[in-house]
From TrEMBL:
<keyword id="KW-0663">Pyridoxal phosphate</keyword>
<keyword id="KW-0119">Carbohydrate metabolism</keyword>
<dbReference type="GO" id="GO:0005737">
    <property type="term" value="C:cytoplasm"/>
</dbReference>
<dbReference type="InterPro" id="IPR011833">
    <property type="entry name" value="Glycg_phsphrylas"/>
</dbReference>
<keyword id="KW-0321">Glycogen metabolism</keyword>
<dbReference type="InterPro" id="IPR035090">
    <property type="entry name" value="Pyridoxal_P_attach_site"/>
</dbReference>
<dbReference type="GO" id="GO:0005980">
    <property type="term" value="P:glycogen catabolic process"/>
</dbReference>
<protein>
    <recommendedName>
        <fullName>Alpha-1,4 glucan phosphorylase</fullName>
        <ecNumber>2.4.1.1</ecNumber>
    </recommendedName>
</protein>
<dbReference type="Pfam" id="PF00343">
    <property type="entry name" value="Phosphorylase"/>
</dbReference>
<dbReference type="GO" id="GO:0008184">
    <property type="term" value="F:glycogen phosphorylase activity"/>
</dbReference>
<feature type="modified residue" description="N6-(pyridoxal phosphate)lysine">
    <location>
        <position position="658"/>
    </location>
</feature>
<dbReference type="GO" id="GO:0030170">
    <property type="term" value="F:pyridoxal phosphate binding"/>
</dbReference>
<comment type="function">
    <text>Allosteric enzyme that catalyzes the rate-limiting step in glycogen catabolism, the phosphorolytic cleavage of glycogen to produce glucose-1-phosphate, and plays a central role in maintaining cellular and organismal glucose homeostasis.</text>
</comment>
<keyword id="KW-0328">Glycosyltransferase</keyword>
<dbReference type="InterPro" id="IPR000811">
    <property type="entry name" value="Glyco_trans_35"/>
</dbReference>
<comment type="function">
    <text>Phosphorylase is an important allosteric enzyme in carbohydrate metabolism. Enzymes from different sources differ in their regulatory mechanisms and in their natural substrates. However, all known phosphorylases share catalytic and structural properties.</text>
</comment>
<comment type="similarity">
    <text>Belongs to the glycogen phosphorylase family.</text>
</comment>
Length: 811
């Protein structure tokens, strides 16, 4: 590609002041920080847009194969600093902002996070967009333009309260509406078969229409002219107001249709523990995939005049099961609008759609009530029946009529449509996201499907955008890496291996320790500004930040903290390495147990932090409203990374990779990508504990009795008893104790916290002892950084391109 054009501070100042005048009618002296932010965003958007138009021309002229990455979540975070960094303009833009009389750090902080996702799934999608663009893969991401992203979390009296997250006020500066590419999505109505001289047709009548308006967020790659797009679909009504009703004074009724249509893109993941929530969630999924598939087909037809070669020019990557309806929707278009026969249409679909599985949890493998799909999507239902019937017949023949094999693999069974099974049936590739996870998919979750079609199944271990999660967020560490001669790591992450040459270099190790200490002080200052909490930076920063879910076992961490506190109260001279425990987590609004664990963390924090016996030795802080921009501050400061999920439950994890890359050491189980981290680190550079996945399965098979661990371990018994007693703030946690010992309508201690407690505590003792030897700790930290390159998203995308997409990437 042609050489990159760079902009000087003066050029950027002129462009920014021009935007202020033309778009906001302000001179720089009159501009607020909000005007300034938008002006800067628009300047960068223009630069990226030029590259995007050139990229589109090249893709079209060379008829390149394209990737379409469908994900209901894209947790993009902030874009101003990221785009400036990727464009090579961060230094001149910062200088331009300062020269115009504004504080660049404050301006970067004013941008809201684009929180269009819950956690790892959406953050992974954002990392992959960055890598696809940097590696010059022609790609488009697709999702919904949620008006409200994941909620803002407020902690009130120790409890999570959800507030709306209106990110579009400033975030829309990055969005380019493409009204002329609006698609029409249909819901409800009835479907009739029509036969005439030209053959069979399907007639769909009585449906409701929602318009899908694309709003494109353009993605800048690092050190390349190539650009890609994240297309976010906004839901609009074709008839915003019923003027007849409005004229007769029925004002609310007049705008009802508009409100119902726009509800689809109102909020990320409505609660689906009631019929209306399920209906809205299914509408969201179909809305986004229908608009996406129609858009891809329309552009392809305009370029080639036929869909016969569609599967040769496009790969549709389904990120988890949420976009699965792309399969019957593409079939619908090929059958009903293009007139293809079933076999020809099925050949195209099954050669262009691929599926990434992100979970082994049965409750997360989506199943939709048959009645709901029949009512909302009558034509899609007909196509699903046909796919399901043909697949079931194939399975029945293959397994010689053995229904015990057929039933778990069926697409429609027991009044439900199983989306993961539809993906396994129709997709040409199915991948897990870590070696262990992919192994479990083959041996357990999709075992019989794997035996039948082993060539479909593969693994692509997750990766992170190391440019954002190391270089950009940890500039002091980036400087050290460059000084050690490994500067090419930004495009060749494996170059980090060169750091290992310095693992016995006292100067480098000392500097690494100083960088971590400075990052801790910087993070503590940020926390003090945000919340008034003063962190003890002399203590080890022990961090667990991720979605709050029982299998991630934040509760195990808390049980250990309670045990430490009890020992401190028994013996003020009790010897252990001082810890500052940092938690960050959002619980799904309807997940009562997860919300209770957040309250427990805050109860324990209040007890510990006010007790003089804990001063300078033990501190517990719950970081409110965990999000991408907070993580960017926290990762460089973290020292011990808690990756403690029950073995066999976490598909991969990506937070574990971010911590490792920033020099934190991991205390963890052999679960998800921890397994591969252990493979590259060895026993000596990670603190492992707990049962392995096979041992977990065996223990559950034999009949796990958590009560026996409680009875036979006095320390553990005392901790669980404390849950029954409470922590002096009036909050009761006897329900959590009962859940651990006796279950709550399910198995007791489903995620084996009590079984792993002793091993976890021993691993903490080991970590604490190593921490007291700074040279040894810094050596382990350096090795973690040096061996983290394999967990860069660039490696993941190269794997996808080679193993699944059959697309060349930038050398």
């Amino acid at each position: 590609m042609s050489a990159l054009h760079t902009y000087s501070k003066k050029e950027l100042m002129n462009l920014i002041t021009g935007k202020l005048r033309r778009n906001f009618g302000r001179d720089v002296e009159e501009a607020t920080s909000l005007h300034m932010f938008k002006a800067c965003a628009l300047v960068l958007r223009d630069i990226i847009n030029e590259r995007q138009l050139a990229t589109e021309d090249r893709v079209s002229t060379e008829h390149l194969r394209q990737v379409h990455y469908l994900s209901l979540e894209f947790l993009m975070g902030r874009s101003l600093m990221k785009n400036a960094y990727n464009l090579g303009l961060l230094a001149p833009l910062t200088a331009a902002i300062e020269a115009l009389g504004f504080s660049a750090p404050d301006l970067f902080e004013t941008e809201p996070d684009a929180g269009l996702g819950n956690g790892g799934l959406g953050r992974l999608a954002a990392c992959y967009l960055d890598s696809m663009t940097t590696l010059e893969v022609p790609a488009t991401g697709y999702s919904i333009c949620y008006e409200l992203g994941i909620f803002k979390q407020k902690i009130v009296d120790g409890q999570q309260v959800e507030l709306p997250d209106d990110w579009l006020g400033l975030g829309d500066a990055w969005l380019i509406p493409k009204m002329d590419e609006t698609e029409e999505v249909r819901f409800g109505g009835k479907v009739e078969d029509v036969w005439d001289q030209s053959g069979h047709h399907v007639k769909h009548t009585g449906y409701d229409t929602v318009l899908a308006v694309p709003k494109d967020m353009e993605i800048a790659g690092y050190a390349t002219q190539h650009s890609n797009v994240l297309r976010l679909w906004d839901a609009k009504s074709p008839t915003p107001v019923d003027m007849g009703l409005f004229s007769s004074g029925q004002y609310l009724k007049a705008v009802e249709q508009q409100a119902m249509a726009e509800t689809i893109s109102k909020i990320l993941y409505p609660e689906d523990n009631h019929y209306e929530g399920k209906s809205l969630r299914l509408k969201q999924q179909y809305f986004f995939v229908s608009a996406t598939i129609q858009s891809i087909v329309r552009k392809h037809r305009a370029e080639y005049g036929t869909l016969r070669n569609f599967h040769q020019k496009h790969v549709i990557q389904i990120n988890d099961t949420h976009p699965t309806l792309a399969i019957p929707e593409l079939m619908r278009i090929l059958l009903d609008e293009e007139g293809y026969g079933w076999e020809a249409a099925w050949h195209i679909v099954t050669h262009c759609v691929a599926y990434t599985n992100h979970t082994v949890l049965a409750e997360a493998l989506e199943r939709w009530p048959q009645q709901l799909i029949q009512t909302l999507l009558p034509r899609i239902w007909q196509i699903l029946i046909e796919i399901s019937g043909r697949y079931q017949q194939e399975l029945t023949d293959y397994f010689h009529g053995d229904l015990s094999k057929v039933a778990p693999m069926a697409i429609i069974w027991g009044g439900e449509v199983r989306m993961a099974n539809l993906c396994v049936c129709a997709c040409f590739k199915v991948n897990g996201v870590s070696a262990l996870h992919s192994d479990i998919l083959k041996k357990d979750v999709f075992h019989d499907a794997y035996l039948r079609t082993p060539e479909k199944f593969t693994n692509v271990t997750n990766g992170i955008d190391h440019r954002r999660w190391l270089s950009e967020c940890n500039p002091k560490l980036d400087e050290l890496i460059r000084d050690c001669g490994c500067g090419e790591y930004l495009l060749r992450p494996d170059a980090l291996q060169g750091l290992e040459r310095y693992k016995d270099d006292a100067g480098v190790l000392s500097r690494l320790g100083e960088i971590k200490a400075a990052n801790k002080r910087s993070f503590a200052a940020w926390v003090a500004r945000e919340s008034g909490v003063v962190l003890n930076t002399d203590a080890m920063f022990d961090v667990q930040v991720k979605r709050l879910h029982e299998y991630k076992r934040q509760l195990l961490n808390v049980l250990h903290i309670i045990s430490l506190y009890q020992h401190l109260k028994d013996d003020p001279h009790f010897s252990f390495t001082p810890r500052t425990y940092l938690f960050g987590a959002k619980a799904a609004p309807g997940y009562a147990v997860a919300k209770k664990i957040i309250r427990l963390i805050n109860s324990v924090a209040e007890l510990v932090n006010r007790d003089p016996a804990c001063k300078d030795r033990l501190q517990v802080v719950f970081l409110e409203n965990y999000r991408v921009s907070l993580a960017e501050q926290l990762m460089p400061a973290s020292e011990l990374s808690e990756q403690i999920s029950t073995a066999g439950k976490e598909a991969s994890g990506t937070g574990n990779m971010k911590f490792m890359m920033n020099g934190a050491l991991t205390i963890g189980t052999l679960d998800g990508a921890n397994v591969e981290m252990h493979q590259v680190l060895g026993d000596e550079n990670i603190f492992l504990f707990g049962l392995k996945a096979r041992e977990v399965a065996e223990m559950k098979q034999k009949g796990y009795k958590s009560y026996e661990y409680y009875v036979h371990n006095p320390d553990l018994k005392r901790v669980v008893d404390q849950l029954n007693l409470g922590f002096g703030d009036g909050a009761a946690y006897d329900d959590l104790a009962r859940r651990l010992l006796f279950g709550d309508g399910g198995p007791a201690d489903e995620y084996l916290l009590l079984a792993d407690f002793e091993s976890y505590r021993d691993a903490h003792v080991r970590a604490g002892q190593v921490y007291l030897d700074p040279t040894r700790w810094n050596q382990m930290s350096l090795v973690n950084i040096a061996r983290s390159g394999i967990f860069a998203a660039d490696r993941s995308i190269r794997d996808y391109a080679r193993e699944i997409w059959d697309i060349p990437v930038r050398a």
